[in-house]
């Protein structure tokens, strides 16, 4: 078996050929190999609007943020690496043969072996400027949320809290680019071609014979799409595969070469799109000197970088510049009002102060159990949009109710803690206030996209696209529902399990 990996964009890490080392760092530390993607020091400036170059890392055809470079989201995100809990796997995949919690365990372990996860970025295993952990840990304890070891108690993500965990290797960004790709590149039967965007598969009826890249057809015996929850549907639409509504649009704007008689109707393409709504909760602690801030403002230009800290990072991969400042993650589980056997989980991520002593932020997401969904659609200009202009956030009233319940519990606990004040949303309120607050401000995405080519809807249990003979999908779009936390580890585990099923099916 020979494998050709066609990557839409270019490299992001130094090891793969990226050389975006900030000028000041190249001069101060000649010969260093830390690009703006290899170290967490720069990760916040890799989002559009923070730096003119940053927008080039993202797909221009998508209604939200979707990285279009080697590594996808794992090359620009905060590298949080959360083991998918057994309860989530059992509940979410129970109806798919070969995808039970038991089936997942070996796949998960293979990911863990290749992508180690750790609560510390600094190679000396120390936490820096992490005082917010103890403070907010006390708040969580006061509302009945207990501390766990997040690297060993991997299934305990319900009414628990602990250290944030990351795919970090040697004080730098880890993830699949290091854990998988570097070994793959050593294989004689593997070829990587970057800057090679696939626009369509080529097929005769249900049999795929190749793909189109930059106007050139490349033949293939089998094709696996891994373009993500947005662009996997895009490629399928262009290939004449999807719902009638999107294929009609595709035909009208010449987005597809396939005539109506050759369409493969698959209503699962683009459906079940999910993401985590988020809020930002801000705090002020009266004993501000106990929570000193550490700023990363100006790091790209080198205008606000402590020399000793920079030396620690560049020479030893230690110190506060090695980390991204996320210190604590907690999970508040909220049962359904009339059925305690069902619940939703709100995830809280608290970070160190970045500008003013004592002033910090916790991100508040609605994760496992949420019911709201959206759909990827094709716009009249060929770009991807939300169907009916509605994103997948808080469209179900039960999501709003339980999200607000979790938020009230968290905010009430914080306001009751001596010296700690919630500055947004400020004050003490009843549930109706938080319901309105969530409904008005919580429809903001996390870019934890999944579900747009889900198991059972778009593909079968071998991830074969329904209606085709030899077209498969392996990416986050397979996920039927959001997990408790940031989904990278889940999607990598899905990829491991899907790969083994495809290899077995093809007889390799």
From TrEMBL:
PROSITE patterns listed in its UniProt record: GMC_OXRED_2
Record's keyword terms, sorted: FAD, Flavoprotein
Positions contributing to FAD binding: 198, 476
Protein family according to the UniProt entry: Belongs to the GMC oxidoreductase family.
Name listed for the protein in its UniProt record: Glucose-methanol-choline oxidoreductase N-terminal domain-containing protein
Upper taxonomic lineage: Eukaryota, Fungi, Dikarya, Ascomycota, Pezizomycotina
Cofactors demanded by this protein: FAD
InterPro entries reported in the protein's UniProt record: FAD/NAD-bd_sf (IPR036188), GMC_Oxidoreductase_CD (IPR053208), GMC_OxRdtase (IPR012132), GMC_OxRdtase_N (IPR000172), GMC_OxRtase_C (IPR007867)
Glucose-methanol-choline oxidoreductase N-terminal domain span: 228-242
One GO MF term attached to the UniProt entry: flavin adenine dinucleotide binding
Keyword Cytoplasm: no
């Amino acid at each position: 078996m020979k494998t050709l990996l066609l990557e839409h964009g270019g490299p992001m890490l130094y090891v793969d050929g990226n050389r975006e080392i900030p000028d000041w760092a190249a001069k101060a530390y000649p010969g260093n190999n830390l690009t703006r993607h290899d170290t967490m020091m720069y990760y916040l400036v890799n989002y559009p609007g923070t730096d003119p170059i940053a927008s080039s890392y993202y797909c221009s055809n998508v209604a939200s943020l979707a990285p279009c470079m080697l590594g996808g989201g794992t090359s620009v995100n905060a590298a949080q690496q959360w083991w998918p809990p057994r309860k989530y796997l059992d509940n979410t995949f129970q109806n798919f043969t070969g995808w039970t919690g038991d089936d997942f365990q070996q796949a998960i372990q293979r990911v863990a072996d290749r992508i180690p996860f750790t609560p510390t970025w600094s190679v000396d295993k120390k936490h820096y400027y992490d005082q917010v952990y103890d403070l907010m840990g006390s708040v969580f304890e006061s509302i009945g949320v207990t501390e766990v070891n997040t690297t060993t108690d991997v299934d305990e993500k319900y009414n628990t809290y602990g250290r944030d965990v990351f795919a970090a290797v040697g004080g730098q960004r880890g993830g699949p680019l290091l854990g998988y790709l570097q070994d793959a590149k050593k294989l004689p039967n593997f070829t990587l071609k970057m800057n090679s965007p696939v626009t369509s598969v080529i097929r005769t009826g249900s049999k795929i014979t190749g793909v189109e890249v930059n106007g050139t057809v490349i033949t293939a015996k089998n094709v696996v799409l891994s373009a993500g929850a947005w662009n996997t549907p895009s490629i399928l639409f262009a290939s004449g595969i999807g719902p009638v509504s999107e294929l009609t649009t595709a035909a009208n704007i010449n987005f597809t070469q396939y005539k109506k008689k050759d369409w493969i109707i698959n209503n699962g393409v683009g459906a079940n799109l999910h993401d985590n709504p988020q809020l930002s909760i801000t705090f002020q602690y009266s004993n501000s000197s106990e929570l000193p801030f550490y700023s990363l403002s100006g790091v790209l230009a080198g205008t606000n970088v402590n020399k000793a800290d920079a030396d620690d990072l560049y020479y030893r991969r230690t110190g506060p510049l090695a980390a991204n400042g996320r210190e604590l993650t907690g999970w508040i589980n909220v049962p359904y009002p009339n059925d305690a056997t069902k619940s939703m989980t709100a995830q809280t991520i608290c970070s160190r102060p970045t500008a003013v002593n004592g002033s910090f932020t916790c991100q508040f997401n609605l994760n496992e159990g949420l019911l709201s969904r959206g759909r990827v659609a094709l716009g009249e200009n060929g770009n991807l949009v939300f169907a009916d202009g509605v994103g997948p956030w808080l469209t179900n009233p039960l999501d709003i109710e339980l999200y607000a319940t979790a938020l009230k519990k968290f905010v009430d606990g914080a306001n009751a803690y001596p010296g700690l004040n919630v500055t947004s949303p400020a004050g003490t309120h009843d549930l109706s206030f938080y319901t309105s607050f969530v409904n008005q401000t919580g429809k903001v995405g996390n870019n934890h996209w999944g579900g747009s080519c889900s198991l059972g809807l778009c593909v079968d249990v071998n991830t074969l696209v329904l209606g085709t003979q030899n077209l498969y999908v392996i990416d986050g779009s397979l996920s039927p529902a959001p997990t408790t936390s940031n989904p990278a580890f889940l999607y990598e585990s899905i990829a491991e399990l899907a790969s083994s099923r495809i290899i077995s099916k093809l007889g390799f």
